[in-house]
Amino acid sequence: MEPINHVAGRAIPFGRKNVDTDVIIPAHWLKTITREGLGEGAFEAVKKEPGNVFTDPEFAGAPILIAGDNFGCGSSREHAAWALLDMGVTCVIAPSFSDIFSGNAFKNGILTVALPQEAIDRLMEVARTDPIDIDLETQTVTTPFQDRFTFDIDPFRKHCLENGLDEVGLTMAQADAIGAHEAKAKVDLPFLARTPATVN
Amino acid sequence: MTTNPRTLYQKIWDAHVVDTRDDGTCLIYIDRHIVHEVTSPQAFEGLRAAGRTVRRPDLTLAVPDHNLPTTARRDAQGNVLPIADPQSATQLAALRQNAPEFGIRYIDATDREQGIVHVVGPEQGFSLPGATIVCGDSHTACHGGIGALAFGIGTTEVEHVLATQTLLLKQSKTMEVRVEGKLGAGVTPKDVILHVIGVIGTAGGTGYVIEYRGNVFEEMSIEGRLTVCNMSIEGGARAGLVAPDEKTFEYLKGRPYTPTGEDWDKAVAWWTSLATDEGASFDKSVSIRAEDIQPTVTWGTSPEDVSGIGGVVPAPEDFADASKRDAVKVSLDYMGLTPGTKLTDVAVENVFIGSCTNSRIEDIRAAAEVLKGRKKANNVKWAIVVPGSGLVKEQAEAEGLDKIITDAGLEWREPGCSACLAMNPDKVPPGERCASTSNRNFTGRQGPGSRTHLMSPAMAAAAAVTGKLTDVRELVG
């Protein structure tokens, strides 16, 4: 995973609320066995709307996406995060995110920044013409017009994002604790600890 | 362990904590992992690339469901038919290869036990009360119907669970959704959950795990509880739960993966102890009167866009929130609906009865009850009934339900996810409407340009018969 410390550049002023992962990447794009190439299918239906921000050359390759409340709701497909990465987006700013999407984004090195709606409104305005700057270290979003918004982030997530850490590897280092839990469960909750074919 | 009164969710959580970090993040043990073909290939690829193995293949079950065509899987000679779509075929083949390579149990598309993962899990007794269950599919919330803490995960998390049998999680907040009173005639579990989502909104449960409480859920069948918990995610909640009770134990006893003998007795004792303690508090409580719930349909492109069937298509101005007004405008345009139109005047060209929400035997029975002795309306061009598993299909056929369905002019198909998300050939054509028992009415969900109205199996069957959205109570009294 690529470490992420700073994201700066143009931001796609999408702004829409309740953007579900079917909108981010429709189901017919999920028939892949790799993580690459999904940018083409990203926001497929939106791209057909006249005047949409995704086909506007002004925002081509922009690393930031600004959206409305409840971004990434619906299906758990991680393809939504892969599609964003493939179109070059490494930071999404919205008032709120669905739980599953924010987890998937984090696990792929995409920074999700939650800011109040007033801040989003202001950034949407700025994004039309100017770049936006996100600094993970100081947890701030700034604009060329002296706007400055601070955001919260889980310290563990921040640490992993800044260092590009692989969560699977981190957890595998805790094999002893996992083994101890399994040994205890075998005694306390044997019906959960095994399935019938593995009895004995 | 605390002696304070705890909720069902807290009790299951506490029993699965492997490690707690200073910031409150916990390493949670996963008891059951179900894998399907769409969200797993990249996870297996990740394991291979890192030279990792599956920690507990015995707690993992692989079943294909999303891509499978629902037409015949074998020819008249019994030979397995190829999958026409090359990408679907590749994904299905990847699961068929990955499962044995990593030592995972696998149910094949041609096995009688095959079905939608969320139908198969409880049906096989693989899903158990008090267990932590995950799958790379947001409707994993479904298994909460038997009292499991079950939720959907992304592919990187699938890889994490395969490698470590754990997940890093923060404890969710708890929400109680209490429905009490007496449900009216024609009001099914699907109507209950659609109504609940209408009340709390699609983001209302974000950050929460819902526990469904009150006499309505206590009296509900296990299959009904599975339907309710299934759509918790449409209310934003990653998981939904109903406390396991005698009905749950009765449902699970004797299923292939259900514990037996001493293990069973021990299990029942523990499961019984899981119910939320008297005095335990929830972070949020919602209370709904059963009498307020009507047979319900959706009119828009968000599952919160619900109305009793007696209602009309709303106008954007009916909504106080400005961004919701804009969303309603866009969604009515997409749906081709005019404010003020009576919902019962909305004609449908397609009917889909199936999905992990509504494809179990009680759902098929409810549809058949409405279809019995009736015919599909002429304006309904495409109407399919897709059982949730091969075993549901066998049961329905043993009861003669397939005959009732085909006599009415609907098609009786092979099990799979089908037109719920249209990854297989079952799609609703652009601009056409579908009365659907699935769980999402999102833009393009049932195929590009498709217009979905969510409802119960009985209501979908009624729509098939009349050719428009219909109050099922007018057909079945």
UniProtKB/TrEMBL annotation, chain A:
Catalytic activity: (2R,3S)-3-isopropylmalate = (2S)-2-isopropylmalate
Pathway: Amino-acid biosynthesis; L-leucine biosynthesis; L-leucine from 3-methyl-2-oxobutanoate: step 2/4
Cellular component terms per the entry's GO annotation: 3-isopropylmalate dehydratase complex
InterPro entries, per database record: 3-IsopropMal_deHydase_ssu, Aconitase/3IPM_dehydase_swvl, AconitaseA/IPMdHydase_ssu_swvl, IPMI_Swivel, LeuD
A Pfam cross-reference name: Aconitase_C
GO biological process assignments: L-leucine biosynthetic process
SUPFAM superfamilies on file: LeuD/IlvD-like
Gene Ontology terms, MF aspect: 3-isopropylmalate dehydratase activity
Ranges where the Aconitase A/isopropylmalate dehydratase small subunit swivel domain occurs: 3-118
Annotated keywords: Amino-acid biosynthesis, Branched-chain amino acid biosynthesis, Leucine biosynthesis, Lyase
UniProt-listed Enzyme Commission number(s): 4.2.1.33
Claim: Amino-acid biosynthesis is one of the keywords in the record: yes
Keyword Amino-acid biosynthesis: yes
The family this protein is said to belong to: Belongs to the LeuD family. LeuD type 1 subfamily.
PANTHER family, per the entry: 3-ISOPROPYLMALATE DEHYDRATASE SMALL SUBUNIT (PTHR43345:SF5), 3-ISOPROPYLMALATE DEHYDRATASE SMALL SUBUNIT 2-RELATED-RELATED (PTHR43345)
NCBIfam families for the chain: leuD (TIGR00171), PRK01641.1 (NF002458)
Subunit structure and binding partners: Heterodimer of LeuC and LeuD.
Role according to the record: Catalyzes the isomerization between 2-isopropylmalate and 3-isopropylmalate, via the formation of 2-isopropylmaleate.
Name of the molecule in the record: 3-isopropylmalate dehydratase small subunit
From TrEMBL, chain B:
Key words of the record: 4Fe-4S, Amino-acid biosynthesis, Branched-chain amino acid biosynthesis, Iron, Iron-sulfur, Isomerase, Leucine biosynthesis, Lyase, Metal-binding
Binding positions ([4Fe-4S] cluster): C356, C417, C420
Residue span(s) of domain Aconitase/3-isopropylmalate dehydratase large subunit alpha/beta/alpha: 10-467
A GO biological process held by the record: L-leucine biosynthetic process
Annotated metabolic or biological route of this protein: Amino-acid biosynthesis; L-leucine biosynthesis; L-leucine from 3-methyl-2-oxobutanoate: step 2/4
Catalytic activity annotation: (2R,3S)-3-isopropylmalate = (2S)-2-isopropylmalate
Pfam family, any one: Aconitase
Cofactor annotation: [4Fe-4S] cluster
Superkingdom of origin organism: Bacteria
Assigned EC number: 4.2.1.33
EC main group: lyase
Secreted among keywords: no
A molecular function (GO) term: 4 iron, 4 sulfur cluster binding
Entry note: cofactor: Binds 1 [4Fe-4S] cluster per subunit.
Annotated family: Belongs to the aconitase/IPM isomerase family. LeuC type 1 subfamily.
NCBIfam families: leuC, PRK05478.1, PRK12466.1
Physiological role: Catalyzes the isomerization between 2-isopropylmalate and 3-isopropylmalate, via the formation of 2-isopropylmaleate.
Subunit composition and interactions: Heterodimer of LeuC and LeuD.
Protein name per Swiss-Prot or TrEMBL: 3-isopropylmalate dehydratase large subunit
Species in which this protein is naturally found: Novosphingobium malaysiense
